[in-house]
Amino acid sequence: MDEASIGAKNITRFADYSYSDIVTSPLMFYYEVTQACDLVCKHCRASAQAQPHPEELTTELAKSLIDQVTSFPKVPNMVFTGGDPLKRPDLFHLLEYAVNRGINVALTPSATPLATPEALRRARAVGVSALGLSLDAADAPTHDAFRGWEGSFARTLEILAVARELGFYIQVNTTISKRNVDQIDSMADLLRNLGIHMWSVFFLVPVGRGALEERISPEEYEHVFGRLWSHAQHQPYAIKTTEAPHYRRFVLEVLRQKDKAHPDGDRTQPMAKRLTMGIGDGKGIMFVSHIGEIYPAGFLPLACGRFPNASVVSVYQNHPVFRALRNPDALKGKCGTCAYRIICGGSRARAYAVTGDYLAAEPDCVFQCDPGTPVVHPS
Predict the structure, then answer these.
(1) 201, 228 in Cβ contact below 8 A?
(2) Residue 330 — left, alpha, or beta (φ > 0 → left; ψ -120 to 50 → alpha)?
(3) Which stretches of 20-129 are assigned E, i.e. beta strand?
(4) Hey, which residues does 202 pair with through a beta bridge?
(5) Threshold 0.85, pTM exceeds
(6) What is the rounded CA–CA span in Å between residue 187 and residue 175?
(7) Which of 357, 292, 282, 285 minimizes the C-alpha distance to 322?
(8) Where are the domains of the chain?
(9) Right CATH number for 7-319 from 3.40.50.150, 3.40.50.2300, 3.20.20.70, 2.30.130.40?
(10) What whole-number distance in Å separates Cα of residue 212 and Cα of residue 41?
(11) How many CB atoms lie within 10 A of CB 349?
(12) Which one of 78, 224, 271, 295 has the fewest beta carbons within 10 angstroms of its own beta carbon?
């Protein structure tokens, strides 16, 4: 979720968030409350384990972290993730504490027996506004193989039904790899009838157990982008990408060509502010691990300090890695000369995972910018 996608309150908060705010405040703050999880998903960033880490932040430290989050100039949306956050005994206490501190809170539970209707009802009762759930295929065999246990697909659909009844803002996350790249259209049609609000399409970053998965080719990205844009025109839910900021370039190129073809007509639909903001790893995004390690994003494991010894506000605003990630002129290779380097900039997490350099060119992008093309600035 590298862009606005969490809950009704978040719509207002995103409207109040400008490109200049990126320098001082993240829009999205992810807190990995635990790495404990009963699933063994093939792509897991965290390589989650059955038991919590012995150095997991205590309840009091977690509350102190929440307090620090509220001290950003603009309070970010906060996503409680994992692992499986429901494996943490004090989860509901922390959720309620964050809500009472004025934070817009989202939860991303795993599709296990812990995600009962009672647990979801309790989360809603303490003020959680949004739920993120993973669905990685349009059929049970593909999804279940991806998630590591038979019955995961059916369980996810059950949880989605309960979440819909409880009035959550629902985001479905789908990780694209060679396993399911041919299911884009069938996935889009399946989601049409599930009452979701956002489809977040993740593009594989080879970290954690995801390093063993086969990601799609750069050319396949362009095909997937085309299908996503097509579905975005008529599906009842919004569509966004995660760790594929070059989807923004794809869409803006489509709109530019459409405007050229119809110069005397009305301009094509206004470019969504969410599309052109340029939010990405360390640039509107921040992640704190279960033991307090501070990262620019969950998929970009560059430790920039450790809470509580380091302040998350100070790290976000001043750490050299975060500052470099917010400087489009620091990018290397074709990303550094691309006209879309401000609003896209490529996946810094994938560049780091593939090359070892977080400022290197996006390895999974085929686009080559024409020399002299004016730089596209955020709206």
Answers:
(1) yes
(2) alpha
(3) 28-32, 77-81, 105-107
(4) 175, 242
(5) yes
(6) 11
(7) 282
(8) 7-319
(9) 3.20.20.70
(10) 11
(11) 28
(12) 271
